[in-house]
């Protein structure tokens, strides 16, 4: 029944212990290895995945095939019975490598020895973010603002779990014993653990309330989109095909973030207009999140997410590109020679105590370029958010902080830069930065608003209902059942 040379099918076989469309049944060694990993994954999910969900039935979307509409299959699922599996988009036998030193060669179906180590590193780094985000969001269910939001949280969580499966499949299938060890380690690191933390900085931050969650899914899941899109260009075809399918799910995660913050803004603006008030403490007294606090959260989540792009100037990024491991965003549609050998790219950095622009070889600036592509997209998101206060006649506008603001990775690390891009002394930073980043008191205040709302169709006071329900169902649909 396989319709692809490597056994990949459009439809996903759910009769298997591990649902898959990669003909796992015909590779017994791999199947056994993954079946050994599966209980460890389920233990990890039980220990660190969404808390107290064993009795819930959730109206979830499950992929049944990898064709265009195949993932949009909805129905109630008991959370512990969710079927994680392995889904790749079908192989294009004629696919060629379209950038770097191997341009025009046939895409690789196996890992060339010379790229084994960097490819494994990329896959492990990508894989590590997926369980990390589930861990970060473990307790949010206890304070959900509605059943609709609770369902969306679980949808995101199960899909991140599946994205971990996607990377673990690649590690087991193509990287032998090293890959199996890395797959084990992915279940052992823990977000925020001092001794065994997750690899990338942002995935060790806390997501302790729903505002942080919406900001995370808007900013950080969108880094996921850009990194996955760059990996979807990879010469290593199985990585390209896995990440392509992951991208179809990522869109919903970003929707949760963008619409979540929009609903918070909407509710705050409604109250400000109704009560004719602008003072943040008066706004807070109405049980909604003031716009100034939202700006501080934008500053925080934007800056920690920019760190995820790595150093602006990076020899790793250059060799990933020349090797064909990781492309640019939209590489296939860019009309240049896809080699970048003589090109340059403008970056901003600090030199002799001043912010300067510098042209650097484009190959070394690929992280900066991907970050700049990302910034264009989040700016467009902020522009959409800003239409909300505008509609209410409120002059406040959210802004993105300067790329150098509050950075821990790359050329701005160790410098003190204000959200509007001024280079500051340490003293100035220390006296002013509390106004730019969420304080413990901001977290406490936002946390104090978080109560559990689980009556169908009801929403917490601090957030407006969504414009429409999931899968065209009414907003008051019982998206989660507690029995
Ligand atoms: N934190 O040359 P450099 C997602 C390390 S999100 C800690 O600056 P490079 C998702 C770096 O690893 C997308 N360490 O950067 C979202 C390197 O260490 P080694 C995740 C960092 O290598 C929401 C050293 O610094 N996917 O999917 O060019 C929910 C020097 O590296 C950080 C990927 O990231 C940091 N922020 O690029 C769920 C794609 N930044 O190797 C999921 C795969 C850098 O010297 N990863 N370092 O020990 C990559 O392509 C690259 O690893 C990076 C870094 C872009 C992250």
Ligand species: benzoyl coenzyme A
Number of strands: 7
Q: Classify the beta-strand content into a percent band.
A: 5-15%
Strand order of the largest sheet: 2-1-7
- Mean pLDDT across every amino acid position: 95
CATH architecture: Orthogonal Bundle
Shape: globular
Brief digest:
With about 475 residues, the chain is mainly alpha-helical.
Structure commentary:
This protein has a single domain (114-481), classed as Ribonucleotide Reductase, subunit A, CATH 1.10.620.20. The protein has 483 residues and is mainly alpha-helical. Helix 2 (116-136) packs antiparallel against helix 3 and helix 6 packs parallel to helix 10. The strands form three sheets. The protein has a three-stranded antiparallel beta sheet, with helices on one face. The chain has a two-stranded antiparallel ribbon with strand order 3-4. Strands 5-6 form a two-stranded antiparallel sheet. It has helices at residues 28-48, 116-136, 147-174, 176-186, 210-231, 237-275, 280-285, 291-306, 315-323, 366-391, 426-432, 440-449; strands at residues 56-62, 73-78, 344-351, 354-361, 416-417, 423-424, 480-482. The chain has twelve helices and seven strands. Helix content is 45%, strand content 7%. The structure holds benzoyl coenzyme A. Benzoyl coenzyme A (BYC) is lined by residues 121-122, 125-126, 129-130, 133, 160, 200-201, 220-221, 223-224, 227, 307-311, 314, 316-317, 326, 367, 409. Benzoyl coenzyme A is lined by residues 121-122, 125-126, 129-130, 133, 160, 200-201, 220-221, 223-224, 227, 307-311, 314, 316-317, 326, 367, 409.
């Amino acid at each position: 029944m396989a319709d692809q040379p490597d056994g990949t099918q459009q439809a996903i076989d759910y009769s298997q212990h591990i649902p898959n469309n990669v003909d796992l049944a015909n590779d017994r060694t791999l199947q056994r290895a993954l079946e050994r990993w599966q209980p460890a994954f389920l233990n990890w999910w039980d220990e660190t995945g969404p808390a107290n969900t064993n009795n819930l039935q959730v109206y979830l979307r499950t992929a049944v095939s990898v064709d265009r509409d195949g993932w949009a299959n909805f129905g109630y699922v008991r959370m512990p019975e969710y079927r994680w599996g392995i889904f790749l988009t079908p192989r294009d036998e004629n696919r060629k490598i379209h950038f770097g030193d191997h341009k025009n060669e046939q895409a690789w179906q196996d890992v060339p020895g010379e790229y084994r180590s960097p490819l494994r590193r990329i896959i492990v780094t990508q894989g590590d973010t997926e369980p990390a985000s589930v861990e970060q969001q473990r307790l949010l269910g206890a304070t959900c603002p509605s059943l609709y939001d609770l369902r969306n949280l679980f949808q995101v969580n199960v899909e991140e779990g599946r994205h971990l499966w996607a990377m673990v499949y690649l590690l087991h299938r193509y990287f032998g014993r090293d890959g199996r060890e890395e797959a084990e380690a992915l279940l052992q690191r823990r977000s925020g653990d001092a001794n065994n933390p997750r690899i990338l900085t942002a995935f060790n931050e806390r997501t302790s309330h729903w505002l942080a969650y919406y900001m995370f899914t808007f900013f950080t899941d969108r880094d996921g989109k850009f990194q996955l899109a760059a990996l979807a260009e990879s010469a290593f075809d199985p990585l390209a095909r896995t990440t392509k399918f992951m991208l179809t799910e990522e869109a919903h995660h970003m929707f949760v973030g963008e619409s979540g913050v929009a609903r918070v803004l909407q509710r705050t603006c409604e109250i400000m207009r109704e009560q004719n008030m602008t003072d943040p403490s008066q706004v807070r007294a109405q049980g909604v999140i003031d716009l100034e606090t939202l700006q501080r959260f934008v500053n925080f989540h934007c800056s920690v997410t920019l760190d995820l792009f790595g150093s602006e100037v990076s020899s790793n990024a250059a060799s990933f590109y020349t090797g064909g491991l990781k492309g640019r965003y939209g590489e296939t549609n860019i009309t240049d020679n896809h080699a970048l050998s003589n090109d340059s790219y403008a970056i901003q950095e600090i030199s002799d105590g001043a912010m300067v622009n510098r042209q650097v070889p484009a190959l070394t600036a690929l992280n900066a370029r991907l970050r700049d592509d990302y910034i264009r997209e989040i700016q467009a998101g902020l522009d959409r958010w800003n239409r909300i206060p505008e509609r209410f006649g409120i002059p406040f506008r959210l802004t993105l902080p300067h790329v150098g603001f509050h950075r821990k990775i790359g050329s701005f690390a160790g410098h003190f830069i204000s959200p509007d891009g001024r280079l500051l002394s340490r003293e100035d930073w220390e006296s002013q930065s509390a106004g730019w980043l969420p304080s413990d008191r901001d977290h406490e205040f936002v946390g104090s608003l978080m109560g559990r709302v689980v009556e169908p169709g009801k929403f917490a006071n601090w957030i407006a209902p969504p414009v429409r329900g999931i899968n065209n169902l009414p907003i008051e649909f019982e998206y989660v059942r507690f029995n």
